[in-house]
Amino acid sequence: MKISVSLGELSEARMRYAKQMGAHGVALGAYALDSYNRSGRVDPEELKSARSAVEAHGLELFTLRLRPQATHDILTGGPNSQEEIDNVVSCVRAAGEVGIPFLYYNLTPWRSLPTAWGEMPGAPAPEPDSVRVGSGPGRYYRPNGRGGAVLLTHRGHLAERDQASTPEESVAPYGKISAAQMWDRIGGMYEAVIPAAEEAGVNVGCHPNDPPERVYRGVEQNLNSVAGLNRLVDLVDSPRSGLLLCIGTLHEMGEDTMGAVDSLLSRGKIFYAHFRNPKGTVPAGDYQEDFLDEGDLDMLEVMRLFKKHGFQGAFDPDHAQGIEGDGDSGRIGFAWELGYMRALLKTVMDE
Question: What angle, 0 to 180 degrees and rounded to 10, lies between the N-to-C axes of helices 299-308 and 257-266?
């Protein structure tokens, strides 16, 4: 078990930051690579150079993250869906050639939008007690953490209000998409991607639907429940098909979080984890992404559960709380998370 930091660029400063904060390695955004930005595919030689640059800082390259927009037409039934599938397959093969153990992609349609929620025509302004809007209806950053720390919050009644007061084309730019349509489209992708992952020796997966509402931005979501996540990893039977499991999003579903983690780990279906501890759930009507020591979960017990199953992946700090003096960078918040995670990891490894 190791600790990772996500990098969207291969700058010396970012890699030094990761090392200084105690990360063992990084998750690299493919969009840090020129070849990927030009063609949607990764040049293995450029990826090898990126790996060498990371390793020169005493870090490992754990994961390759594809751009969320890379699956736009796959998820929306667009004309370029086959090209996008071919691009994902090509990236999987490149990761295998370079020896990167895990690659993940986006399977939540609204995340593939090129325009942020706050920039959509008619999108609501921040609430009076909000710092700024979040990524969609009902999501606001509020200074309601301890000492006024800024937390991302999600309120069901605000999501309903925002959706009712915003033009339909902004709320649901793809129109209505059913869960059945989503399963059909993802299934077609998996029929190509999973065999390629097996050949390349690369684990692949995605993040659950966030927020895990039943319907969000016109989409009847299919990865917003434990049953949905299990169905996804079983679409094509393979040990290479699994998840980037966000512990926070899983808890926000309102099911048995620890039971679900235990089951998925026992099946070898968690390859990488976002280490987050929210307070509240979607069925309860609201949640906020709190500090690791103040959410609903006992994160020491979570870490122990991963150790029990011999987890070989990495934990990534996620959605840092807004700390005084940090602005929007999250550097202080992520540093706090990393320190807390290192303490938990040392505790369980010493037991």
Answer: 20
CATH superfamily for domain 2-118+178-280+296-350: Divalent-metal-dependent TIM barrel enzymes (3.20.20.150)
Alpha-carbon distance of 288 to 141, in angstroms, equals 9
| CB proximity list for 73: less than 8 A, separation 6 or greater | 79, 80, 81, 83, 84
Give the tokens for residue 96: 């295998």
pLDDT of residue 142: 95
| Tens of pLDDT, residues 75-120 | 999 999 999 999 999 999 999 999 999 999 999 999 999 899 999 9
Q: How confident is the model at residue 325 (pLDDT cuts 50, 70, 90)?
A: confident
Q: Where is 87: in which H helix or E strand?
A: helix 81-98
Residue whose C-alpha is closest to residue 94's, from 30, 25, 186 = 30
* Element at 25 (helix H, strand E): strand 25-29
Tokens 């999250």 correspond to 330
CA dist., res. 31 & res. 235, Å (int)? 28
d(CA 340, CA 230): 30
**pTM of structure:** 0.96
Average model confidence (pLDDT) across the chain? 96
**Calpha distance 73→51 (Å, rounded):** 30
Residue extents of the structural domains in the chain: 2-118+178-280+296-350
Q: Can you read off the two tokens belonging to residue 264?
A: 């998925």
Q: What stretch of H or E contains 139?
A: strand 139-142
pLDDT of amino acid 36: 98
Kindly report the number of other CB atoms within 10 A of residue 77's CB atom: 13
